[in-house]
């Protein structure tokens, strides 16, 4: 369907490329592919304040989805591929800016151009958590607004935060939905391994 704006296929491809991390479109033919940028130009955020740039993590989502397709690798080849994908995922994890579902009991002043805001002293913040592993709670985090809204609805606001901002207190359940292949669970040890990949 072309959709209401007549851009249905462009929107589908744009989401595949710039939300889910696809790099190209594979054509049904002998070794034919078209790079993402040739079909749908990447979004340009030039001149837009950082706080207004939509949260997108295509480089992280690419490896989450690739790992999700492998399920439980059993052959040596599948285990090697899993290890390679997992290594790439760990390299992307510290760079990701994710959305944490949050509710507050008072409205906050709007953020400045750098995304900073001052919360009143008596304001209470509630973040969405779930029972984690080994008795530690996990905070819910999402890679983009589409997944955030699909899981949390319109009643929750989003706070932008890297995993490093939460991992000392909580494990991180990224894109935790009924679709297991689109999310990951990160504990403190996993994140430490990810940080070592940055050196």
Mean pLDDT: 87
Strand runs, count? 9
User: How many angstroms separate the termini?
Assistant: 46 Å
Q: Within the largest sheet, what's the order of strands?
A: 5-6-8-9
* Strand/helix succession: HEEHHHEEEEHEEEH
* SS-based class: alpha+beta
Strand content: 15-25%
Tell me the Rg in angstroms.
19 Å
Gross morphology:
globular
Low-confidence stretches: none
Largest sheet: 4 strands, mixed
Helix proportion: 25-40%
This entry's quaternary arrangement is: single chain
User: Tally the helices: what do you get?
Assistant: 6
Helix-strand blueprint:
Layout lengths: L7 H11 L5 E4 L4 E4 H4 L18 H13 L5 H17 L5 E7 L20 E3 L1 E3 L5 E5 L3 H8 L4 E5 L9 E4 L9 E3 L1 H9 L3
Parallel strand pairs: 6-8
Antiparallel strand pairs: 1-2, 3-4, 3-7, 5-6, 8-9
Give an overview of the whole structure.
There is one protein chain. The chain is an alpha+beta fold. It is built from six helices and nine strands; from the N terminus they run H-E-E-H-H-H-E-E-E-E-H-E-E-E-H. It has helices at residues 8-18, 36-39, 58-70, 76-92, 145-152, 188-196; strands at 24-27, 32-35, 98-104, 125-127, 129-131, 137-141, 157-161, 171-174, 184-186. A four-stranded mixed sheet has the order 5-6-8-9.
């Amino acid at each position: 369907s072309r959709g209401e704006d007549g851009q249905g296929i462009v929107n589908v491809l744009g989401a595949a490329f710039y939300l889910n991390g696809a790099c190209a479109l594979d054509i049904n033919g002998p070794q034919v592919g078209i790079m993402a940028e040739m079909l749908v130009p990447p979004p340009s955020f030039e001149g837009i304040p950082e706080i207004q740039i939509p949260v997108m993590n295509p480089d992280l989502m690419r490896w989450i989805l690739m790992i999700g397709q492998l399920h439980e690798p059993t052959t040596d080849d599948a285990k090697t591929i899993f290890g390679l994908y997992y290594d790439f995922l760990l390299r992307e994890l510290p760079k990701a800016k994710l959305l944490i579902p949050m509710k507050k009991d008072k409205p906050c002043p709007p953020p400045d151009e750098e995304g900073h805001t001052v919360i009143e002293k008596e304001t209470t913040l509630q973040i969405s958590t779930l029972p984690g592993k080994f008795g530690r709670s996990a905070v819910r985090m999402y890679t983009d607004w589409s997944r955030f809204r699909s899981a949390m609805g319109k009643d929750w606001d989003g706070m932008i935060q890297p995993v490093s901002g939460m991992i000392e207190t909580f494990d991180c359940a990224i894109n935790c939905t009924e679709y297991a292949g689109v999310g990951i669970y990160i504990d403190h040890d996993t994140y430490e391994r990810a940080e070592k990949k940055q050196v």
